[in-house]
Amino acid sequence: MFYDISGIIREMTEDRRSMFGPLVGSIDEGTSSARFLVFAAETSELLTYHQIEIPQMCPREGWVEQDPRQILKAVKDCMETTVDNLHKLDIDPMDIVAIGITNQRETVVVWDRFTGEPLYNAIVWLDVRTTTTVDEVLANVRDRNQDCLKSLCGLPVSTYFSAVKVRWLMDNVAEVKLAMEQKRCYFGTMDTWLLWNLTGGSDGGLYITDVTNASRTMLMNIKTLAWDATLCKFFGIPMDLLPEIRSSSEIYGYLTDGSLQGVPISGCLGDQQSALVGQMCLRQGQAKNTYGTGCFLLYNTGISVVHSNHGLLTTVAYKLGKSANAVYALEGSVAICGAAMKWLRDNLQILSDVSESDKIAQSDRDRSEVYFVPAFSGLYAPFWRKDARSVICGITEDTTNVAIVRAALEAVCFQTRDILDAMNQDCGIPLTKLLVDGGMTSNNYVMQLQADLCGIPVVRPLMTETTALGAAMAAGSAEGIGVWDLENLQAVGSDIFRPSISEDERDMKYSRWKMAIERSLGWVTFENNADMDEEDKQKLVLASMPAGLFLISTVALLLVAARRLALR
Hints:
alpha/beta; seven-stranded mixed beta sheet; six-stranded mixed beta sheet; globular
């Protein structure tokens, strides 16, 4: 049974408004965890939340998967536990008048529309199994230009985006191919999977996505905000497979079960766009950087579509209402941020907890100059080099785990500097400050280092849950809800980290980082080139090497050849 929303709001305001006023819930489904948070609409105060970690599976090198059923269960469990928390705080869950969704982007799930069962695990955004798929779709493109579609979708052809993941599923998973032929296959990013299930699933669930998530698929025209026939044909993806595209703020439908049954879902934003809204970067020229599993810097370009000449993405920032104008952004994406800390913990076991990194990095032990390029799945913006792999440079016999941890943290800040430099070249107006959010912002060492390496103040809000807040703002301000006033937003308190090193020291450190980046390029795996002979493999390695390494390797090969001749 669905509630009449105007009746709920009227009842709250006239008869039983809680001490916090109307509340808005936010589903935050990220790469590493799912959460449900509840905010007071009038103050943006976070009242309570619950979080559940979502495991990842890596069945092969470079493959990253998640179980869509686990994700859905985690979201529902988070909602129920948060409702219990509200009861314990003597807050009525019935005061929740709307719910927003924010989600990890580009991650793909396909499922049977009649049974609701996934046809394959979700392929996570940083998965690189589609390297050969990218090569195949570019085979007939002049000069194999990965920017050949940017004028239509704003994105380079890359393993990062959803279309190539769908193409891989069509080519490699028999169940998916059969389901498509039988017209029973649904495809979506995580917002679509959640919206469909939460609004009824196979019993009338809504098959929709919002413009921000659609803009990450490579299938939506960045100007018309509609699925594009040319793009779909390029990837060989049927247009009738795709969900309906909606705005980021409108009443889509209603929860069909659970403690919050009948509450409307009225906001939907990809996680980085949601953080931009949550940071209140609603004016052209404002930017934010989110530090999560990856690192993502978005710059609001207003209603203008700005195409980058320096390796950045053009994306939809938000569209807050059916009749509202779409607002666009330039984006720089870094694949590995917090994931590097987990790698140090789980693989190298030099951290017992990622929260220790701050204390370890500030230790006086081991001040050696080490640089770590965490290119586990290649380099994203502004390089877009899928052949890059991680390197650690500058190690001596005296190097300890302290230097490695410090270098991993510094890598996050160096990569942000790479993106800021590209944005400055594209936009022509350097940022005067950088707004930040995400889990790693609790690390004071990283925040100060970011200010030092970029040469501008770094502003960290005291309320750090800006990604979830953005979805709540979109939901609460939707037509028919109207409990969140986006025209009169209150400024939030913040900490400010100011640069503390000289420009010469900043430039010296950054030049060393560039040297490390150069050494990370050209590392090629041959998993999908088993039919190559040794001579072809050597040619491919040499062709992809930086110039200095090419010379060294050529000399080495000549010496080997000479030695073989001498032995004969």
